[in-house]
C-alpha cells in the first residue's frame, strides 16, 4: 500500500447552453478534466469561462455542474479500480498469500503493537549506566580507573616489545655466531634449522604475549563492566556518592595513581580557526579549524598521565553516549580485512588500551568485511553490467572489494578525541594528480560522510583537507591551493545541503593539512577560508551612551 | 501516566518518523529531494485550519530532529477502546450519527480518513464524539511519506488490502466499528495475517456482517441488534465500494433514527472559554514542553546515536548497518493545562472580557524589547484577548487595530493584523478564485528558477506545498497587474505573506496586492530605473540628513547606494533578512507608512557606522555582499524615531500613489536631475512654517548682508554665501556667532534650514554644512522669494548690529 501511485485518468466534461438569440442552437463545451482532480473546480470554471467567453450568468450553474461531475467521476474512478481488484480476488487471479505476507511484514516491522517485543539490549543498559555515571561525581574515579587499566595494557605492551626485542637480539647474536662459524663448525643445514627454530620461538613468544594481552583485555573489560554496574546500583540507592567506595583502584599499586608529572605538549602546531556563517538570509554558524597535523594524533593517547591528554579523554568520555559525537576521516586504500597504513596505525592506537564499550577494532574490521561481502558484490556486479563490456573501470580491484568513495565506519571509546572513524576508500594515484573535479568519488564520499554525520549526531568532524595524509613531491603550492579550494567549496555546498536534512548541525569542522607542511604553504591555505566562507564579523562592544558623535 | 481528571487534558501529541529517501538525494531537477518530513509539514498545514464540532482540532505539527513529526491536537474524554462498559443501542446510534457527520464533512473536503479505528474516536461524558488524528492519511500523502502501514488490520476494507481503496473504504471501517460496538470486539487476539485473510474471504459472502457475526458465534446477538442499526451496518459492509452507502446517506438515515438531541453544553467561561489555539500557544509560552511529555511516556526514545552507527556507506549512498527504522507507536501523550492555569490564576474574571472603549491598564512589559514581550505569557495573554476582540470588529475597528499594532503585534494573530493594517476587506476568496493561476506564461521559467532559492531555510516555504502556492501567488499577481513585470525579488516580497497566510492563499494575495501600491508603487515597471533612482537619491539624502559624517565618508569613497541598496528597497528588505526579522521590520512598516523604509536603510547604515567609517570602497563592497547581523529591534526603533522627527516633505517622492500636491505651500518637487545633485533634501513652506512656529528650526540666510538687512526671516542668522570658504570644512570658519547658533541648534536637535535667493548657492552651502557634519540640514524649497510671497508675516527687519565683527 505504501508504494501506491494513483494513476490519473482524463475524463471529458460536456456542457451545452443555448445561444442568446436562438434557443434551438446550442454551444457545446467539452473540457478534459483530470480525475482525481487536484485543484479547485471553481477555479477551473473561471478559466473555462474566460477562455471560451461563456456568458457570466452561467457561472453558478457551471460551478455546480462541474463540481458534481468531478465528484461523480472521482467516485467512479475509485469504485471502478476497486471493483476490478475485488473481481480479481474473487476469481483467484491475485496472489493472496503474497499480499498478506507483505502486510504482515509491514505491520510486524513497523508498528509497535504488532512488533516482537524486545527488551533493551545489554549495550543500551550499559550505555545508560555509563552515561549516568560519567555525569556524576564518580567521573573522576572512572577516568582514573580507565587510565590505570590503560596503563597496565601499555606496560604489558612495553614488556612484550622488550621481550621480543631481547629475543630478537639474542637470536641475531646466535645467528651471527653460527654464520661466522659457517664451514668451520656449522653447516648450512644447521643454519637453516636454527632459522626455523628462531622463527618458531618468535611466533611462540608473540603468541604468548598476544593471548596474555587478550586475556588481560577481557578481564579488564569484564571487571570494568561489573564495577560500573555495581557503582550505579550504589549510586542509585544512596543517590549521594562522592567517591565510589568499591573502586578497583584499591587493587592497584599506589604509584599508578600518583599525580603525573606535567609533560609539555609537543611543538606548537600551525593552526587557525574561523567562525563562519552559511546561508543567504538565515545564517547558521559553524567553526572551521585549519590545522597542520596528523589526523591520527586525534586518535592516539600516548601518555596516559599527561593532564592535557586526560582532559581530552574526559571530553570524549562525557560525550560518548550523547548526541554530540566527534568523528574523523581517514583515507586508505586497503579493504577492512587486510588493513594497511594508515589503518594499521589506527589499529595500534586503538590497541593501546582496552576497548570497554565496543568490540575491539580488529573484531569490528572482521565484522565489517563479512557483512559487506554480499552488498558490495551485488553493487559491483550491477556496476559492471552498467559499464557494459568495459570492465576496466574497477582498476584491478577485485569484484568483492570496496571501490573508491566507499566508506566503512568503526566506533571507539578509547581514542583521544574521536568516537567514530570514517575510513574513506581512495585511489591514491588519482588523488595525486592535480585535476580532480567535484564529481570525483572521493568528494562524493565526503558528501556521504557529512550526510552520515548529520543523521548520526556527529557534531565535530575532522577531514584531510588535501585528501592526502602526507606531503609528496607533486604537491606544489599551486596544487595544494587548488585542492584545498575544491574541497572547501564542496564541503561548503554539502554543509548548506545538510541544513535541510533536519539532523545534527556540524558545529566544528577541522580541516587537517599534512603535519609536515611548510609554514609558508600553510598561510595561503588558511587564507582561503575567509574567501570561500563568510567569516563572521567580530562583535564590537560599544559604549551605550555614545550615539551622536560630533 | 495520564491525569486522573480527564477534563484536565485538553490536548495530546503523537509522534512518528517520516520515511527516509533511500540512496541519492537528488531529484530530477538536480535539486536535492525534499525530505519527507517537510512534505508532511506542508500538507498538514491545511489540517490546522479545519474546525468542526465533531473533529479534534489540530493544534500544531512539529518537525523534530531526524525526520521526526510530532502532531498535537485537541482531545476530549476517552477513546471507544478505553470505554470498558458496553454501550446501549441508543448510545451506539448516537455515536454513529456524530461519526457519520464528521466523516461526511471530511469527505466533502476531499480528505480520506483511512485510519478510522476505535482508538481515535473519542467520547466524553455527555456523549459528545470527536475524531482524533483523522488527517494521518492526508498529511502523509496517502501513506507514501512514511514507512509504516496506516490503519489497523481489522478495520481495513478488502479493497484497501489489495492496495486500492478510495473514500468508500472509510465506510467499511465505519461499518466494522458499528458492528464491534454492537456485538463486541472482532478478531480479538488474532495476528494481522489471519485477520486480513478473514477479511479477504468475506468477498465470497453475501452478507459480510452476518458472516462476521457467525464467525464470532454471535449470530444470535447480532439478530438482537435493532433492525434499523443492522441495516446501517449492512449498508456499510458491502463488498463492492459502489454498493456501499455514502456518509451523506448515512447521516440522513441516522437522523431519522436518533431521537434524542444532545444537551447543549454552555461554553465555559474564563480561561477554558478561550480559543484552544490561544491556550496551546500560551501554554507553550508558560513553559509547556511537548517533547518532554513524549519522552516521559517513552514515545521519544533516546538511544545513544553511537550505538546505531552504520558500518559502511557505499558511494551511491547505500547505507549498511546502523539505525533500523523506529517502530510506529500509536500511543498518545496527553497534556494538562495546569501549568497555564496556575500561571494565570491571579487574572480576575473580568479581564477575560476586555471592553473596547474602556481605558486599559498599562503593562510593565511594554518597556521590554519586542522579542522578550513575545515570550511573556501574561503579556501575550492580554494582548491576544484584546486583539481577538479588535479583529472581531474589523473593519470597523481598523483605527484601534492600527493604534495597538503600533505597540506590538502578537505573533499568533500577525497574519490577521497585517491584513487589517493593509485594509484587506471583501470577498477575497471569490476575487482570487477568478484569477487564472494555471495557464503557462513566459515568466514561469524565471519563477521556477527563483522559488527554490527563496527563503528555503523556512520549512514551510521549502516544501512542495510552499513552492506550489508561491508560484500561484506570483502568477496571480502578475496577471492582475499587467502594467508590471516580474522582477527578481518579487518572490522574496511575497514570501512573508505566504508564510503568515500559508493556508489562506487568497488573503496572502490580497495582502500582496495592497502592499505593492502602498510601498512599491511603480517599482515593478519594466523600466523602473527612474523610480529606483529617485528612491535611492532620497535614501542618500536621508542618510546625509541624519548621518552627515557617514554620508560624507561614503560620498568620498564613491560608495553609492546603487551598489547595495536596490534589493533592500525593491523587496522591502525581505531579500536581505530572514523571516523572523522581516516580520518585525514590516510590523513597523505597515503602521508607519511608506516613508519608513528610507529611514530603515539609514538605520542599518547607522548600525554599521563604525565599520563603514573605517572602511574603503572594497571593504564596503565586501561588507554588503553579505550583510552582517543587524539588531532589528534597535534598527526599527531608531528608524521610527528618525521618521517621526523628520518633516514629511523632506522624504517626499514623486513616484507614490498619493494624490498630487497642488498647493504651492506643499510643493517640494524638483526636476530629477536637480534631485540627483542635491545632497540635502528640501523642505516645503508649510513644514517650514510649522517648524518655525514650534521653534524647532534654525534658519541660515545666505543672501548678501544687504538684502538680509532689508528684510529677513524672523530669528534667522545671516551667513553671506560670498564670504564662505567652501574648502574649509570647519564651522569655525563661518565666524563665531554662526558657529554658536549652529552648535546650539545641533544640541537641541533643531532642523537647520538653508534659505537663499538661488537654488545653486543653497545647494552648495548645504553640502558644505553636511561636510561639516551638521545633521538635519535641509533647503527651503523656493527660497526666500517663495516664502515672502506666501508667508510674508514671517519677515522682519533685523536689528542693526553694533558693528562688532
From TrEMBL, chain A:
Renumbered residue ranges of the record's region Disordered: 377-399
Native organism taxonomy: Eukaryota, Metazoa, Ecdysozoa, Arthropoda, Hexapoda
Name of this chain's protein: Protein C12orf4 homolog
Regions crossing the membrane: none
The encoding gene: LOC111357335
GO terms for cellular component: cytoplasm
Automatic annotation (TrEMBL), chain B:
Domain Protein kinase: 1-258
Rhodanese domain residues: 693-796
Domain of life of the source: Eukaryota
Domain Rab-GAP TBC: from-to ranges: 408-593
InterPro entries assigned to the protein according to its UniProt record, in alphabetical order: Kinase-like_dom_sf, Prot_kinase_dom, Rab-GAP-TBC_dom, Rab-GAP_TBC_sf, Rab_GAP_TBC_domain, Rhodanese-like_dom, Rhodanese-like_dom_sf
A molecular function (GO) term: ATP binding
SMART domains xref list: RHOD (SM00450), TBC (SM00164)
Protein name: TBC domain-containing protein kinase-like protein
Organism: Spodoptera litura
Amino acid at each position: 500500500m505504501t508504494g501506491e501511485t494513483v494513476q490519473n485518468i482524463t475524463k471529458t466534461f460536456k456542457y451545452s447552453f443555448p445561444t442568446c438569440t436562438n434557443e434551438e442552437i446550442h454551444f457545446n463545451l467539452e473540457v478534459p478534466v483530470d480525475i482525481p482532480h487536484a485543484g479547485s473546480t471553481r477555479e477551473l470554471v473561471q478559466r473555462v469561462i474566460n477562455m471560451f467567453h461563456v456568458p457570466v450568468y452561467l457561472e453558478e450553474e457551471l460551478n455546480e455542474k462541474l463540481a458534481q461531475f468531478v465528484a461523480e467521476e472521482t467516485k467512479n474512478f475509485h469504485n471502478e479500480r476497486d471493483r476490478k481488484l475485488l473481481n480479481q480476488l474473487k476469481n483467484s487471479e491475485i496472489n493472496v498469500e503474497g499480499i498478506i505476507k507483505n502486510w504482515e511484514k509491514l505491520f510486524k516491522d513497523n508498528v509497535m503493537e504488532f512488533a516482537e517485543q524486545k527488551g533493551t539490549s545489554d549495550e543500551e543498559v550499559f550505555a545508560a549506566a555509563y552515561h549516568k555515571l560519567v555525569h556524576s561525581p564518580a567521573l573522576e574515579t572512572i577516568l582514573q580507573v580507565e587510565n590505570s587499566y590503560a596503563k597496565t595494557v601499555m606496560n604489558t605492551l612495553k614488556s612484550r616489545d622488550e621481550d621480543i626485542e631481547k629475543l630478537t637480539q639474542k637470536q641475531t647474536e646466535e645467528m651471527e655466531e653460527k654464520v661466522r662459524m659457517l664451514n668451520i663448525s656449522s653447516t648450512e643445514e644447521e643454519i637453516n634449522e636454527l632459522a626455523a627454530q628462531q622463527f618458531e620461538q618468535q611466533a611462540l613468544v608473540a603468541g604468548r604475549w598476544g593471548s596474555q594481552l587478550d586475556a588481560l583485555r577481557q578481564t579488564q573489560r569484564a571487571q570494568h563492566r561489573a564495577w560500573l554496574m555495581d557503582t550505579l546500583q550504589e549510586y542509585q540507592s544512596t543517590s549521594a556518592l562522592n567517591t565510589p567506595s568499591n573502586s578497583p583502584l584499591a587493587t592497584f599499586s599506589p604509584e599508578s595513581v600518583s599525580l603525573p608529572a606535567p609533560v609539555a605538549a609537543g611543538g606548537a602546531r600551525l593552526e587557525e580557526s574561523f567562525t563562519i556563517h552559511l546561508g543567504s538570509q538565515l545564517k547558521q554558524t559553524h567553526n572551521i579549524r585549519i590545522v597542520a597535523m596528523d589526523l591520527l594524533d586525534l586518535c592516539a593517547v600516548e601518555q596516559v598521565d599527561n593532564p592535557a591528554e586526560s582532559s581530552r579523554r574526559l571530553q570524549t568520555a562525557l560525550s560518548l553516549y550523547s548526541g554530540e559525537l566527534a568523528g574523523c576521516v581517514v583515507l586508505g586504500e586497503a579493504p577492512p580485512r587486510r588493513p594497511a597504513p594508515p589503518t594499521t596505525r589506527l589499529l595500534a592506537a586503538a590497541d593501546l588500551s582496552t576497548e570497554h564499550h565496543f568490540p575491539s577494532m580488529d573484531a569490528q574490521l572482521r565484522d565489517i568485511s563479512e557483512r559487506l561481502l554480499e552488498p558490495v558484490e551485488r553493487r559491483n556486479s550491477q556496476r559492471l553490467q552498467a559499464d557494459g563490456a568495459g570492465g576496466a573501470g574497477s582498476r584491478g580491484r577485485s569484484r568483492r572489494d570496496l571501490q573508491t568513495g566507499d566508506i566503512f565506519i568503526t566506533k571507539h571509546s578509547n581514542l583521544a578525541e574521536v568516537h567514530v572513524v570514517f575510513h574513506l576508500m581512495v585511489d591514491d594515484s588519482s588523488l595525486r594528480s592535480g585535476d580532480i573535479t567535484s564529481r570525483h568519488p572521493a568528494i562524493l564520499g565526503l558528501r556521504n560522510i557529512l550526510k552520515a554525520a548529520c543523521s548520526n549526531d556527529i557534531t565535530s568532524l575532522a577531514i584531510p583537507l588535501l585528501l592526502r595524509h602526507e606531503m609528496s613531491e607533486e604537491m606544489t603550492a599551486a596544487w595544494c591551493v587548488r585542492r584545498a579550494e575544491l574541497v572547501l567549496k564542496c564541503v561548503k555546498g554539502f554543509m548548506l545541503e545538510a541544513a535541510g536534512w533536519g539532523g545534527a548541525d556540524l558545529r566544528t569542522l577541522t580541516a587537517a593539512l599534512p603535519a609536515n607542511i611548510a609554514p609558508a604553504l600553510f598561510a595561503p591555505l588558511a587564507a582561503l577560508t575567509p574567501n570561500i566562507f563568510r567569516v563572521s564579523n567580530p562583535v564590537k562592544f560599544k559604549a551605550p551612551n555614545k550615539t551622536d558623535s560630533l | 501516566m495520564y491525569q486522573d481528571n480527564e477534563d484536565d487534558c485538553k490536548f495530546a501529541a503523537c509522534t512518528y518518523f517520516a520515511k527516509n529517501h533511500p540512496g541519492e538525494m537528488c531529484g530530477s531537477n538536480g535539486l536535492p529531494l525534499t525530505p519527507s518530513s517537510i512534505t508532511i509539514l506542508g500538507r498538514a498545514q491545511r489540517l490546522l485550519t479545519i474546525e468542526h464540532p465533531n473533529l479534534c482540532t489540530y493544534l500544531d505539527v512539529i518537525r523534530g530532529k531526524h525526520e521526526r513529526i510530532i502532531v498535537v491536537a485537541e482531545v476530549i474524554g476517552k477513546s471507544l477502546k478505553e470505554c470498558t462498559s458496553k454501550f446501549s443501542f441508543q448510545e451506539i446510534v448516537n455515536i454513529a450519527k456524530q461519526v457519520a457527520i464528521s466523516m461526511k464533512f471530511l469527505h466533502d473536503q476531499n480528505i480520506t480518513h483511512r485510519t478510522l479505528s476505535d482508538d481515535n474516536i473519542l467520547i466524553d461524558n455527555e456523549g459528545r464524539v470527536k475524531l482524533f488524528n483523522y488527517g494521518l492519511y492526508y498529511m502523509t500523502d496517502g501513506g507514501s511519506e512514511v514507512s509504516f502501514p496506516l490503519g489497523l488490520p481489522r478495520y481495513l476494507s478488502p479493497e484497501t488490502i489489495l492496495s486500492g481503496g478510495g473514500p468508500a473504504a472509510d465506510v467499511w471501517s465505519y461499518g466494522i466499528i458499528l458492528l464491534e460496538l454492537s456485538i463486541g470486539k472482532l478478531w480479538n487476539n488474532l495476528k494481522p495475517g489471519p485477520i486480513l485473510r478473514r477479511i479477504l474471504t468475506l468477498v465470497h459472502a453475501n452478507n459480510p456482517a452476518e458472516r462476521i457475526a457467525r464467525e464470532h458465534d454471535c449470530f444470535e446477538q447480532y439478530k438482537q441488534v435493532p433492525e434499523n442499526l443492522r441495516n446501517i451496518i449492512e449498508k456499510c459492509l458491502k463488498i463492492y465500494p459502489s454498493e456501499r452507502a455514502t456518509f451523506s446517506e448515512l447521516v440522513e438515515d441516522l437522523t431519522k433514527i436518533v431521537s434524542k438531541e444532545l444537551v447543549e453544553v454552555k461554553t465555559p467561561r474564563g480561561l477554558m472559554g478561550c480559543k484552544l489555539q490561544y491556550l496551546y500557544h500560551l501554554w507553550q509560552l508558560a513553559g509547556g514542553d511537548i517533547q518532554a511529555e513524549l519522552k516521559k511516556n517513552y514515545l521519544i526514545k533516546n538511544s545513544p546515536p553511537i550505538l546505531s552507527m552504520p558500518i559502511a556507506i557505499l558511494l551511491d549512498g547505500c547505507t549498511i548497518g546502523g539505525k533500523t527504522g523506529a517502530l510506529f507507536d500509536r500511543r498518545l501523550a496527553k497534556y494538562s493545562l495546569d501549568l497555564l492555569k496556575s500561571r494565570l490564576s491571579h487574572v480576575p474574571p473580568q479581564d477575560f472580557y476586555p471592553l473596547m472603549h474602556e481605558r486599559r491598564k498599562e503593562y510593565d512589559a511594554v518597556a521590554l524589547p519586542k522579542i522578550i514581550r513575545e515570550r511573556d505569557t501574561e503579556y501575550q495573554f492580554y494582548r491576544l484577548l484584546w486583539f481577538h476582540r479588535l479583529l472581531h470588529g474589523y473593519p470597523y475597528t481598523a483605527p484601534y487595530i492600527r493604534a495597538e499594532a503600533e505597540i506590538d503585534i502578537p505573533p499568533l494573530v500577525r497574519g490577521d493584523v497585517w491584513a487589517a493594517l493593509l485594509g484587506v476587506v471583501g470577498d477575497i476568496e471569490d476575487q482570487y478564485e477568478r484569477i487564472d493561476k494555471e495557464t503557462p506564461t513566459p515568466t514561469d521559467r524565471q519563477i521556477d528558477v527563483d522559488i527554490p532559492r527563496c527563503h528555503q531555510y523556512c520549512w514551510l516555504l521549502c516544501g512542495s506545498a510552499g513552492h506550489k502556492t508561491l508560484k500561484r501567488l506570483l502568477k496571480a499577481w502578475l496577471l492582475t497587474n499587467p502594467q508590471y513585470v516580474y522582477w527578481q525579488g518579487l518572490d522574496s516580497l511575497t514570501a512573508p505573506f505566504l508564510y503568515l497566510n500559508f493556508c489562506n492563499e487568497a488573503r496572502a494575495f490580497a495582502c500582496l496586492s495592497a502592499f505593492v501600491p502602498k510601498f512599491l508603487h511603480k517599482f515593478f515597471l519594466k523600466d523602473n530605473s527612474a523610480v529606483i533612482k529617485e528612491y535611492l537619491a532620497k535614501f542618500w539624502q536621508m542618510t546625509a540628513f541624519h548621518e552627515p559624517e557617514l554620508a560624507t565618508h561614503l560620498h568620498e569613497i564613491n560608495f553609492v547606494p546603487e551598489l547595495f541598496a536596490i534589493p533592500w528597497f525593491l523587496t522591502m528588505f525581505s531579500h536581505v533578512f530572514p523571516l523572523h526579522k522581516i516580520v518585525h521590520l514590516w510590523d513597523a512598516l505597515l503602521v508607519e507608512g511608506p516613508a519608513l523604509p528610507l529611514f530603515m536603510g539609514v538605520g542599518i547604515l547607522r548600525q554599521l557606522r563604525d565599520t563603514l567609517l573605517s572602511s574603503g570602497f572594497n571593504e564596503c563592497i565586501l561588507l554588503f555582499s553579505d550583510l552582517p547581523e543587524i539588531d532589528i529591534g534597535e534598527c526599527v526603533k531608531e528608524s521610527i524615531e528618525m521618521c517621526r522627527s523628520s518633516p514629511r516633505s523632506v522624504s517626499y517622492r514623486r513616484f507614490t500613489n498619493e494624490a498630487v500636491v497642488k498647493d504651492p505651500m506643499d510643493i517640494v518637487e524638483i526636476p530629477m536631475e536637480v534631485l540627483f545633485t542635491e545632497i540635502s533634501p528640501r523642505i516645503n513652506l508649510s513644514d517650514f512654517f510649522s517648524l518655525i512656529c514650534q521653534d524647532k528650526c534654525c534658519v541660515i540666510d545666505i543672501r548678501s548682508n544687504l538684502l538680509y538687512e532689508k528684510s529677513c526671516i524672523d530669528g534667522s542668522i545671516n551667513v553671506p554665501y560670498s564670504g564662505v570658504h567652501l574648502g574649509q570644512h570647519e564651522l569655525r570658519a563661518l565666524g563665531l556667532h554662526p558657529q554658536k547658533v549652529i552648535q546650539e541648534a545641533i544640541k537641541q536637535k533643531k532642523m537647520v534650514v538653508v534659505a537663499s535667493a538661488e537654488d545653486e548657492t543653497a545647494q552648495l552651502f548645504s553640502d558644505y554644512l553636511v561636510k561639516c557634519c551638521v545633521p538635519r540640514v535641509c533647503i527651503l524649497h523656493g527660497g526666500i522669494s517663495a516664502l515672502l510671497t506666501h508667508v510674508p508675516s514671517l519677515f522682519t527687519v533685523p536689528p542693526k548690529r553694533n558693528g562688532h565683527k
